[in-house]
Structure formats: C-alpha cells, structure tokens
Amino acid sequence: MKLYHDPNSRSVRPLVVLEEAGASYDLIPTLLSQGDHLTTAYRALHPLAQLPVLVDGSLTVFESTAICMYLAERFPDRRLAPPTDSPQRGPYYQWCTFVPGSLEPAFGREFQERNGGSVVPGTPALGAVLSVLSEALAERTYLLDSGYSVADAITGTTIALLPKYGVTLSASLRAYVERLRERPATNKAWSLSGL
C-alpha cells in the first residue's frame, strides 16, 4: 500500500487512519511546493493532480475522505467505523462528510473575507461550523457515542491544523485535539506531518 503525501495537505488524514489501522504502507513524498504532483506519472494516479492518492495493489483511490472511509472498510478488525447495521452508521457518515461539506467551505469563506474576496452565497460562517463541532464534543470523548472512528481522524486532523491559520479554537475543541494527540497512532502521523 502506498500513500502519496505532503505534510501540508489533506494526506495527513489518511496517514492517521493508516497508523490507527496498524497498516503496512509506504509513504511517498509528493511535495506540492516542488511540483511533484504535476508529473505525468502522478497525473496518471490523480487526473486533477491533487493530494492525496492511495494505491492498494491494483486499486487507486483519491479524495482524502474516500481514502479514509475505504481504509476503515479495508481493516474491519480495527473498528474504525461502526458496523453497517449499527445506529451509529448514520452519524458516522454525517461526521465523515462534515469537514469537506461544511468546515472546509466555511474556512474558505473566512479566508476570502480576510483577503477581500467574494463569498459563495449560502456558505456558513466558520464560527457557526466550529460551534456545531464544539457542542457535539462538549459531552463526549469522540464524535460518535460508540468511540473513536475515521470521522475523528478526518475532523480532528483538520481542527488541529486551524490554529496554523490564525483560527482560535474553543476549549472543547482544544481538549478534543489533545485527546487525539494522546493516541499513539494519531500522534505519530501528526508528528510525521509537523503537527
């Protein structure tokens, strides 16, 4: 298994999942700043020349959330996703897609507003999105009542990055990031990525 990785990209999310799964993998440095993603060979893996890409035998998967969800299914014994018949499966899908569907667009809006750009109508404010997460985590250790899941790898990694961009986290979000950092596998992946 190979993960094409730049520590300043969304590839940190599947790196966390690979570590949490105890998977054997090769980390392929693909530095955006060096243009490694613009080669013909890399474009054959990802037609938009974005990161990350996971190659598992003859299978190639791109999009960080898809890779993370794939890995949860690939390593079912690690219980990184609730069983398909669990009532937690719906909330699992909700939180797995919350970052690309709500948090990232809200952060984009914040960035545009800070820099005088136009905002896409209907995009929620970053503060509102972070409040939803803060409330969800105020009374629980992880996003799901059933415990740690890929949703935490996706969401926690993204939240851990926000202070690098001047975003202040609430007490419950800071505590959540610290709980995740206490997990040896997550801490290893974050350390490899400079978090």
Topology at a glance:
Blueprint: E1 2-5, H1 12-21, E2 26-29, H2 40-45, E3 53-56, E4 59-62, H3 64-74, H4 89-114, H5 126-138, H6 150-161, H7 171-181, H8 184-192
Parallel strand pairs: 1-2
Antiparallel strand pairs: 1-3, 3-4
Helix pairs in contact: 1-3, 1-6, 1-8, 4-5, 4-6, 5-7, 6-7
How would you sum up this structure in a few lines?
This protein has 195 residues and is of the alpha+beta class.
Characterization of this structure:
The chain is an alpha+beta fold and about 200 residues long. It folds into 2 domains: about 1-80, Glutaredoxin, CATH 3.40.30; about 90-185, Up-down Bundle (Glutathione S-transferase Yfyf (Class Pi), Chain A, domain 2), CATH 1.20.1050.10. It contains 8 helices and 4 strands. The chain has helices at about 10-20, 40-45, 65-75, 90-115, 125-140, 150-160, 170-180, 185-190, and strands spanning about 1-5, 25-30, 55, 60. The chain has a 4-stranded mixed beta sheet, covered by helices on one side.
